[in-house]
Structures are given as C-alpha cells and as structure tokens.
User: Fold this.
Amino acid sequence: IAMAESFISEGRIPEGLNYLSSAIESRKSSGQMVDEAWYRRGLCVAYNNEVVPQVYDFASSWIAAYPSETNWRDAINIARNLNTYDGGEMLDLMRLSHRVGALKEKYEYIDYVEAADARRLPNEVKRVIEEGYAAGIVSRDDIYISDALSTANSRIAADEADLPALERDARGASAGVRTVVAAGDAFLSYSDYAKAEEFYSKASDMPGADRGEVLTRLGIAQLEQGKFDAASASFAQVGGNRLPIAKLWSAYVSEKAAAAAPAVQPTAPAVAQAEAPAT
Assistant:
C-alpha cells in the first residue's frame, strides 16, 4: 500500500492503481484477507480521477469481497455518476439495485418505474411500486407513481393473455429479432427465467440484436436459475456503455455463488490406533 501511495502522490495514478490491484490479487491468491481499506483507496482514487475501466474493477472486486447494502449503493451510484444511461441500461442497473436491497430513495423507485415503463412491462412496474409502498419509501400520494400503477393494472390482464402467442411466435423459425427479444423481456418481467433464457440465447446470435442488452439480460435469467458459471460468461461478453453494469452484475453472481456453495466441513484428524499387545 505504501508503494501504491507513492505512485499516486507523484501523480502516476494508473501505475499506483495497477500496483494496488496486483497487491490485492496477490493476497487473495495466497488465501490472505485483503483489508477493505485497500479496495476503498483504489476505488476513491480511480473515481476521483475518472480512471476507466479500473474504477469498475475496484468497485466490483470490493463489493464481491465486502457485500453490504451500503457498499452496493455506493458502487451503483459510482456507475450512475460516471455514465449517462438510456432507458434499457438504466432498467438493468435498477434491477440490480433492487436485488441487492439498495433501493432506498423515492427517486430510485421513480427511475426504475420510468425505465421499465408500465406500458411495456406492467407486471414488473406493479411489483416495484407495491414494494415501494410497503417499504414506506414511496408515498401513495405521488401522482406519477399512482398513474404508473393505474396504467400497469389496466394492462396486466391483456399482457398475460398475449404471452402464449408471443411465445409461439418467438419460437417460430421465421421469428424476427424484435419478436424474440420482446419474448425474452416479457418472460423476464414475469420471473419465468427459463423461457427468458431460451429467447435471449436465441436472440444473441441473430442479426440486428443489441448484443450488450441481450447478453446482460441473458446473464440475469441464468443467474436467477442458479446457473452462475453461465451467467458470468454472459456478463463477461458485455462491453461498451454497459460494461460497468455487467461488471456489477458479475460481482453479484460471485456473491450469490459463494452463498450457494456448500460449507466446507473440517476434516477430523485421524486418531492413531494402538497396536493390540500380542498374546
């Protein structure tokens, strides 16, 4: 850490961050604990100097090692502050924020609802709004939220009725990429992750697909089914403006995989048997 700080103090920021990152990986590979302050220092320096993509590497490795709602909020806000996201990108970032328990402010629920759009994903919008109400974070007097909930409620029945036809059309040999992606989006919003995975996987190889979006959502669908290796592989293929989002989702995969792994039971030491005396 002293060597890394010497680089940083001299203004050799990338060198200092690389040195610190190497030190962290060295300790991890040798089975030693890494002080959280090391992650925080690297993240702070990278963030203040907008060193991309190292800032996201530090953020994702930090929350993978020290997951908490507060740390997740900080990491997600870093991604938001350093980037301008469109609706689809914001939706997938807010989905992550929701899963890690980091939705704590009214504006975050509004961002989620706006990105999901009650006309496109009514079931997901309804679920998020009702959770915001139950948590006491969103007021029932908020006109925008109440209007979105009303729109969602009015569309859910028709949306559900359309699912079988959408599923059939998306499985057709002549299905266009828009239909296949729409099917993936619909089933993801209804938490039918197996079907969502099927359609995103199909769409990922189709001409005209937004691969970053499709692979991000494919990874989400795989993660929700406990397919951690597959999810990690999907997120690893995401680049461009979605890179920070994918890295944060990858950190969440690591957290979930660690939680799902069976605990290693210590092996009891062998007890030497005394040789029976000869008779």
About this structure: Residues 15 and 78 are 22 Å apart (CA to CA). The first helix runs from residue 2 to 9. Residues 266-279 have pLDDT under 50 and may be disordered. The chain has 14 helices and no strands.
